[in-house]
Amino acid sequence: MKTKLLLAASLTFNLCLETHSSFAQFSFVHISDLHVSSVASSVNACDLHGLKAQCYLKEFAQINPKPAFVLATGDISNVGNSNPGMYNVLTQFLFPSAVVNPSPGAYFIDSAQTVPIYFTPGNHDYYTTLYPPGSLTQLNHVSNYAQYIAPDTDYAVTTNISVILFVRSGYDIPYWSQPDPITPAGAGITNAQCSWIRNQLSQNSSKRKIIVMHHPAVNIAGTNCDGTAYTTETILSPSAGTWLANRTAFLNICDSNQVDVVLAGHQHQNVVADRAGNVINENCTTCGTRYVQTGAAFNGCFRVITVDSSFINVSSPLQSCAAVAGVDELSNSLNITVFPNPSGGELNLTMSQSGSVPMKIYNVLGECIQQNTVTASNFRIDLSSQPNGVYFMHLQTEYGRVIKKIFINK
After folding, report:
1. Which residues contact 393 (CB under 8 A, 6 or more apart)?
2. Where are the domains of the chain?
3. pTM of whole model > 0.85?
4. How far apart are CA 12 and CA 241, in angstroms?
5. First to last CA, the chain
6. Which of 284, 295, 368 is nearest to 73 (CA)?
7. Within 13 Å of residue 170, how many CA atoms lie on the same side as its CB?
8. At 261, is the secondary structure helix, strand, or coil?
9. Per CATH, the architecture of 14-319 is what?
10. Non-local CB neighbours of 403 within 8 Å, separated by 6+ positions
């Protein structure tokens, strides 16, 4: 069924990150589906009072090398239309405080204001309620999205080696208009948005190209934040759970303009696909545009994206301190301790569990830098050859997986 789009007219901003203009490489963090909320919900998972956001935003500011910025691709709020609004639940943890009608990049995750955070809206930001139909065709300004978070517009962020386009992929279309009600679709993008995307990509033809939006343009089953198979919804085709208007036109734009990566969320899963809906490696060099989904931030998922003049590296999925509920309790019950932490690279791991416990340690790019089988209650770890930064230890105990965060500071 043909759907009439009532999105706001496309205004544009072009921002230049001067602080990165002299660097040949930089990295940033991608998160999606924050779902911050001022009230508990029995209908949908949320980050009550933004406490998980407070945790992972602090963590991102400690990554070494420091990220150039953080991108948050939609569903910033659990329900856009709330009284009081939910966006101020998040912005109390951002800097500077009490910003009114912020421009793109006006917020920072650190008090020194060195790491900006950029937003684009998701379908939940259009919601008036979590119950169907529950969605408006324009961002609900009663909820103060524009007042608290960012302008209701598409915009571009440019560096000397890249261009990043922030594109609104629309509201949830009514259930009676859904071609696949099992995996609902968003409204999509307008012809004007398509023209704007083409123009921005054409003007930056020699640069690496990234597009970020909430709904995935290509959808296929991947994994949950804990690495298990995604089974929340049945995905019948690469177009199910994506968006309707101009989806094929968008895919063609990405092909003809050699877009490197399209970053999205929405499905609360981790997966990377090509245009045809084949699961591919995060850093496939022969697959054309990589359509990347990152799982929900309220479950602790994030990725680190590294950009240089020749390629864009996408990390495997990482988990922050807001990871799967129960990890801290499990860690405590098994008396798992890593010390000293921070350290200069030499650490001790102690635990009460006996037997063999597989251990892997990952850097912020998702690369496994060390793996062992822990067979003693006191195990020594040597990371002294690794650079300063944040690392993630995964221990697969017989009771479940435990994740410990390690800081190297020589």
Report:
1. 338, 349, 359, 360, 361, 403, 404, 405, 406
2. 14-319, 327-408
3. no
4. 27
5. 61
6. 295
7. 27
8. strand
9. 4-Layer Sandwich (3.60)
10. 319, 323, 327, 392, 393, 394, 395
Rounded to 5 degrees, φ, ψ at 130 are -80, -10
Alpha carbon distance 71, 213 (integer Å) = 10
What CA–CA distances, in Å, run from 120 to 34, 93, 156, 162, 295? Answer: 12, 18, 11, 18, 16
| Residue 382 burial by Cβ neighbours in a 10 Å radius (0-12, 13-18, 19+) | exposed
Whose tokens are 């963090």? That residue is 29
What tens digit of pLDDT does each residue of 130-151 get? Answer: 776 677 777 765 567 888 999 9
Residue 59's nearest CA partner among 391, 294, 317 is 391
Token pair recorded at residue 281: 């490696």
Q: To the nearest whole number, what is the mean pLDDT of the chain?
A: 85
State CA 246 to chain mean position distance.
23
Domain 14-319 and domain 327-408, same fold? Reply is no
Alpha-carbon distances, residue 46 vs 34, 94, 100, 134, 271 (angstroms):
8, 19, 25, 17, 22
Two tokens at 267? 């499905």
Taking only the tens place, the pLDDT of each residue in 178-208 is 777 677 788 999 999 999 999 999 999 999 9
Structure tokens at 243: 């968006």
Taking alpha carbons only, the member of 92, 117, 86, 88 closest to residue 103 is 117
CATH number of the 327-408 domain: 2.60.40.3080
- Read off the pLDDT of each residue in 236-254 and give the average, rounded to a whole number: 94
The amino acid occupying position 56 is Y
Instruction: Choose among 183, 239, 167: nearest CA to 11.
Output: 167
H helices of 175-256, in order, are: 191-203, 247-256
